[in-house]
Amino acid sequence: MSENLDEIERRRIMMKMMMEIINKAQQKTSTKRELTREEVIQLIRRITRGERAGEIIDNALQLYGDTAVQVFRQLVELYLGGRLGELQDYELYQILERVGLHVPLRTRIRIVRHGREESIGASGE
Question: Which of 119, 125, 62 is nearest to 96 (CA)?
Fold first, then answer.
């Protein structure tokens, strides 16, 4: 009979512990606040690496505004949740393209001869 009471007591304690865990999880989700537009933009700039990252972000914001912010918000939430690491500029560009946001980039052509950059119109001096 004491074995039966021990089992009942263990189950009661386990149920109590499970309820505490569930309550803590609910409190975390309820206290989580929505990021502002500016915070999302700051964070996406912080987690994106590469020479063209700033240009991609600026052009996306200029062309698509709140739609781009919503895509950035999803990326930031994945990053904060630990599901996403840092993004390279070309990865951000590909993500935007795949969701239908074409972001044009300024094309640069550089010619380097003998360790020096030359312009295309330079004559052979």
Answer: 62
What separation in angstroms does the CA of 116 have from each of 111, 113, 125? 8, 5, 14
Pairing of strands 111-113, 87-88: unpaired
**Cβ density class 72-108: b for 16+ within 10 Å, e for less:** bbebbeebeeeeeeebebebbbebbeeeebebeeeee
Instruction: Identify the three-state secondary structure at position 112.
Output: strand
pTM, two decimals, is 0.63
What's the token pair of residue 67? Answer: 């739609």
Q: Is the pLDDT of residue 125 over 50?
A: no
Residue 31 banded pLDDT, cuts 50, 70, 90: low
Q: Is 57 exposed, middle or buried (CB count within 10 Å of its CB: 0-12, 13-18, 19+)?
A: buried
Q: Mean of the pLDDT values across residues 60-80?
A: 93
Cβ-contact 47, 86 below 8 angstroms:
yes
